[in-house]
Design brief:
single chain; 2 domains; five-stranded mixed sheet; 16 helices; 5 strands; 8% strand; disordered C terminus
């Protein structure tokens, strides 16, 4: 039995990928559920517009903070700020009252905003009762106050106190309106994210398994001696999976719209462009995983290690704004983060491509880097070597030996 134990330890030590997965995954899960798995939103940026924007911005308390205060703008500008994704909350402070506009595509932020507004309204209701009590005490002391008002400057102080009491009695957010997801349905925000998750699975896992399967069968070795460029091999390998992933994406979006009544308010070409960029990223990641894996088991292990952070840290389940600052930066380097922003922006908010240029730019940059690395790995693997293919003689002695 001792010999079997020693043998297993030696085999585990040689299998560095499995050993790394056994150590890496527990640490990753600890980080995710310790620092990232939070549904509460600590900070909520707000756009404040309207004639009384300055007064409304001064009345904001944490978790709200004014990201933009524009007294010269109106309700249409506030809705545009929500649609373009600049802020999840907008306040329209007009002469007739205050309206709070919420972006329903950011579900957790919208729920946190409604909870915070309810608490703020309750607090201001208490202040209103206190103001009425103070007003009643002021009325009962009217004779003494009349005598005091005869002193210079006393009327100005009394008017200032009355105005402060009146403002304290006004509730924050007399009207709350939710846009783009009025019922705050979970399916409306999950279906666009699941579209990216399916593309990630098909593009990365299935592609890596398909390439590794050919390596194990020896057919990939035969490509090294064929008159094919590495670029042709790379594109030829990913083309079938590209088509399958595109079909899966169309099925998921169609079922989400038909079965779960998820709206599609934006432009189809903008959505397709984002999907194409994300597909190139995932297919390149699949080829990279296959290039460093010898077996399908190793490919699955590496794919899980790459997929798990994207599921947990991309904003698909947990909002990025609720994550600790030390973990949040991981989400900013994950391609699923930006594709989720594109799908939710296009489908739910109808955002134009001009307001989504940042996630498009980051996704294109990541795709260029991943595709270049995958092509270089394929070029190294398919390059002729003394152990693979039939290299040409490189010296006169080699030519003479070949002639003999």
């Amino acid at each position: 039995m001792w010999a079997m134990i020693v043998k297993e330890f030696r085999q585990l030590r040689r299998d560095r990928r499995t050993l790394a997965m056994m150590i890496f995954l527990p640490v990753l899960l600890l980080i995710i559920f310790g620092y990232a798995a939070r549904f509460d939103v600590q900070t909520i940026p707000v756009t404040v517009v309207g004639p009384r924007a300055d007064l409304a911005a001064s009345a904001l308390h944490p978790p709200f903070h004014p990201a933009k205060v524009a007294p010269g703008q109106d309700r249409a500008d506030a809705i545009a700020a929500l649609r373009d994704g600049r802020t999840p909350v907008a306040v329209v402070a007009g002469a007739g009252g205050t309206s709070v506009l919420l972006d329903g595509s950011q579900l957790f932020t919208a729920n946190a905003t409604k909870t915070a507004i309810a608490a703020m309204s309750a607090r201001q209701a208490r202040q209103a009762r206190q103001a009425r009590s103070a007003s009643a005490a002021h009325t009962s002391a009217a004779p003494a106050m009349r005598a005091a008002h005869t002193r210079p400057g006393a009327r100005t102080v009394a008017a200032t106190q009355a105005e402060g009491l009146r403002q304290a009695a006004q509730p924050f957010g007399t009207r709350v309106e939710v846009f783009f997801n009025p019922k705050l349905k979970t399916s409306d925000i999950m279906v666009p994210g699941l579209a990216g998750l399916i593309l990630l699975f098909v593009g990365m896992v299935i592609t890596s398994l398909g390439v590794v399967r050919e390596r194990q069968a020896g057919t990939l070795e035969q490509l090294a001696v064929m008159p094919l460029r590495p670029r042709d091999v790379f594109l030829g390998k990913i083309a079938p999976y590209f088509l399958v992933a595109a079909i899966d994406l169309a099925i998921v979006i169609a079922m989400g719209v038909a079965v779960f009544s998820v709206p599609f308010r934006g432009s189809v070409p903008v959505f397709v462009l984002g999907a194409l960029l994300f597909l190139f990223v995932t297919l390149g990641m699949g080829v990279l995983i296959s290039s460093v894996s010898q077996t399908q088991g190793q490919a699955i292990q590496l794919a899980i290690m790459v997929m798990l952070p994207q599921i947990m840290l991309s904003g698909l389940i947990f909002p990025l704004s609720s994550m600790a600052a030390g973990v949040r930066w991981i989400g900013y380097v994950l391609p699923l983060t930006y594709f989720t922003e594109i799908t939710r922006g296009v489908m739910l908010r109808g955002a134009p491509i001009g307001s989504l240029w940042q996630p498009f730019a980051y996704l294109a940059l990541i795709g260029a880097v991943v595709t270049a690395l995958a092509t270089l790995r394929f070029r190294r693997f398919l390059a002729p070597s003394p152990r693979r293919g039939h290299p040409e003689p490189t010296s006169e002695a080699a030519v003479a030996g070949a002639s003999r």
